[in-house]
Amino acid sequence: MEVIKKQTGAAFKLKKGQKLKVIDPQGEQVSDMVLFNAEDTREKISSGKTLDFEESILITKGNFLWSNRSHKMMEILEDTNGRNDFLLAPCSPETFQIMYNNPDYHPSCFENLYTNLEKFDIQPDDVPTAFNIFMNVQFAPDGKLSVDPPLSKAGDYVLFQAQMDLIVALTACSAEDSNNGSFKPIHYAIID
Ligand SMILES: [Zn+2]
């Protein structure tokens, strides 16, 4: 079991067929996840392709995560919470300036993704819209969005299986709105 401390991230390789378990150890925490093809990092996870091919904006057990080249990257085998978001980009320094009116430095998922991905020669501009595990984004019929506290309880997890050799980056989200105002860790495990 690996620990991602509050407001940090991690990046690692996952072989085709291996499983990745992402756990919310305390409840009400979000983990942003991005994926790259380990053989060619220009191929990466795509929100647009996933929502299109899965014909849903709510992605959970039984769904696949697809790439910008229309290949399956992961299958979701289990999802004990059942609520994830694939609409919103990772929180970034600008998120806190624009949406929180905070001009000071603030840790962010974007920074925690690209700094951990540097060792794989992946640049900040290469980071796509993340699959936001446990994130509770609600939408009204008129399209209005709101980021609500996660519904995840302590010990909830999502189990993924790699459909190709992957580079995976994960965070413990740094945005107050994503985790009900208290920053917490995320745990993960790689299972053969
Ligand atoms: Zn975040």
UniProtKB/TrEMBL annotation:
Record-linked InterPro entries: DUF1989
Ranges where the DUF1989 domain occurs: 2-167
Top-rank taxon: Bacteria
Pfam families: DUF1989
PANTHER family associated with the record: RE64534P
Name under which the protein is recorded: Urea carboxylase-associated family protein
Organism annotation: Gillisia lutea
